[in-house]
């Protein structure tokens, strides 16, 4: 296979034969949001019944807790359509939440005690009970508070036209499935090296409610606002730091991304390895189980990674079995904070920026990423999480310590070239426009999402109340006044009704007791 640099690939993909290669990028969004009372406390009510059954509604469900909603859009080639779908799902749900609101931030609202966070309930079917027991395990392993953090997941796949063009210009003779998987893994490696840029630009959690710590001391140098809010002066995304989705037991798992077999083997080793930390928690074989099993990971989804290779699984398949069967189908980006300045939790500009960044990660040469390089990338991310807006912050690059600003400028110089090609392929200027829009944040850190959050928090007086509640009220009103743009009330109500029938069918299909069901599941896994 011919090895080409980024500029050569872009030049070849810009010619008359290949210039349409980037048409048809597919995306999907999963947005999490806590339901809260108007007082700012977490809601303790069950999942809104009229939105459907959490087990079988494919678009409106729950994540860890009954109060942590998850909105899932279908796959679409149109970014505006995807956002319209997300807005409609939220509008419909808000209609059936009474006076409750959707918390518009990643770090949770005021939670008096972890016991206020009720586990999500998925019904009495075997798979429903498995989902709840899995969450019971998360609670007993990491605590419920960590699971109250919300995020946005961005899924992307590139069109067949691009794979055909790339294989042609690289003179690759690999089987298509193997070629695509290798290219997606190269994207992942590049993303991990430079993921700190996402935290810098889109991190929106530099502060948190002190209730999140539940009286525990933190080593982070928090300052306090008059309202009691804790913050890091230059922080960007506490959700991605030591307070968020971390797992000390996972820190030693050497899940690698240099080829698909290596990735699958690393993840499977984790679900088969007995944990020294969790082996005393009763598993599903006990009379009163508190977790699925006593391994480092109960199931593969427990692996906390900011980016994942994915394939839609068939019934009964685990994620790695799906990958083994058909290779990588799409990429899931899990590093996004909820954008508190967007009604849907993510903006159109962010989607277009991610198109450019992930295309850059795909086309840029991607050397193997060994374990020490992965740990170095993690350290760079943690620096940005805690100090990203400090103008003097340096990161460790291949050539030593460099200013974050200088490295970001180098990346944006390449992103501009990628945006030009995407614009040409799609007969637009939106990609170049959005790159310039976000480049301003490199020059002026206060324009980052975290900078805007801190400015808003510091400008408020205690009498003005919570910024989160104010935004939640504003967005609820906006959704109420906004007409449906993709779905309508009848369609979503019918989907909700169908989900109850679907859950009943799942229950009816159960042909064994819960323990036997899990015996079979783990034997196959």
Walk me through the structure:
The chain is α+β, with helices and mostly antiparallel strands. The chain has a single domain (6-524), classed as 2-Layer Sandwich (Creatine Kinase, Chain A, domain 2), CATH 3.30.590. The protein is built from 17 helices and twelve strands. It has helices at residues 6-13, 79-95, 126-142, 144-147, 160-169, 176-194, 196-202, 260-272, 319-326, 348-363, 371-387, 404-426, 430-443, 449-459, 467-481, 489-509, 514-524; strands at residues 26-36, 60-62, 68-72, 101-102, 152-157, 207-208, 223-224, 230-231, 307-310, 330-336, 394-397, 400-403. Strands 1, 2, 3, 4, 5, 9 and 10 form a seven-stranded antiparallel β-sheet that branches. Strands 6-8-7 form a three-stranded antiparallel β-sheet, with no helix packed on it. The chain has a two-stranded antiparallel ribbon with strand order 11-12. A hairpin with a 5-residue loop joins strand 2 (60-62) and strand 3 (68-72). Helix 6 crosses helix 10 (348-363). The longest helix is centred in the last third of the chain and has 23 residues, at 404-426. The protein starts with 5 loop residues before the first helix and ends with a helix. 43% of the residues are buried.
